Amino acid sequence: MVDIQVFKKICNESNLGEIVGVPFSISGGLLHKMYAIETDKGKFAIKRLNPQIMKRPNAWKNYINSERIANLVSKKVPATPAKIINGDSIQEIDNHYYMIFNWIEGKMLKATAINCSHCEKIGSILAEIHRTDFSQLNLNEELGERLQSIEWKYYIQKGQESNAEWVVLLLEIVDRLYEWTSLANNANKLLSANLVISHRDLDPKNVLWHNDKPVLIDWESAGYINPMHDLIETALYWSEDDTGSMDKERFSTFINGYKKRYGKVQANWSTVLENGFSGKLDWLEYNLKRSLWMECSDEEEQMMGTTQAIETIKEIKDYVEKIPILVDWLIQEE
User: Fold this and answer.
1) What is the pTM of this model?
2) Which among 44, 102, 48 has a CA at the least distance from the CA of 70?
3) What residue spans of the chain are helical by DSSP H?
4) What is the pLDDT of residues 259-281, one digit of tens each?
5) Tens of pLDDT along 15-37?
6) What is the C-alpha separation between 334 and 325, in angstroms, rounded?
7) Are strands 213-216 and 223-225 parallel, antiparallel or unpaired?
8) Which residues neighbour 112 within 8 Å (Cβ) at sequence distance 6 or greater?
9) Is the distance from CB of 250 to CB of 279 less than 8 angstroms?
10) Which domains does the chain carry?
11) pLDDT at 2
């Protein structure tokens, strides 16, 4: 928990007013910590950025650019960028970095609560984002073609030394991990010639609903991406139930909601889906690092890294089984 004095300092330096009541922790996803705070000027959500992430060379620049994207697209879709305070969307207080948001009334939908109407709305919004002209931001396409080189056997060795829970699971698929990495790299080369700017993490946890109207939050991953890869990955987010099984009707409705706004969609769907390994493998490696205390701030984060590594291994194995089914569904949609 951040000390109350830190919140007072944030409020003072950001002109948020005098604190009313006690700030409290709220769900902040899997990377950062979020707090709710009320002052005599209103209610705000404060994101304390993960200090390990902020040590990365391009972290500051990436966050600034993602907020520029969110600000521009918020004129077309219901998006919530961070508040611009003293000319910046990131505030540095006592060597920690914070982003401040106006409070949004709404709730995230659990998988069991998502219906076809929700899928159609988000599909249409995703198409609107893809159709947005971001050229005035002058962002480099440096996030386009990005080859992975991950030494999975190194993490297995480190995991064995520390008796990590996930070692046996990783050993079972180590050869396939290298195979999937190669497939992702080849697919990325083919798809990187066609890029748009998008949210890139538009799963249900990043959409708040109020009176059946959505608001898109957490734009920190925003950047260049192949539109068909983004479409299929996002459609999957919204069509999976709480066990990870796919609902064909929700998937189809999402695709159709997108097509109504974007137009016809067509691609080599096997290549698009192979590109889907990339983000999952990145996320697995990051959580292996957290679990091994290689990129980790505290015990809570280390435990989360272990849990997420185990879950991600299962998700990747499940994804392999889904690919041929999804290819069939997508061909039917053309």
Assistant:
1) 0.92
2) 102
3) 4-13, 51-54, 59-73, 116-130, 152-161, 167-191, 227-239, 248-262, 269-275, 277-291, 299-333
4) 999 999 999 999 999 999 999 99
5) 999 999 889 988 766 778 899 99
6) 15
7) unpaired
8) 241, 242
9) no
10) 4-102 (3.30.200.20), 111-333 (3.90.1200.10)
11) 62
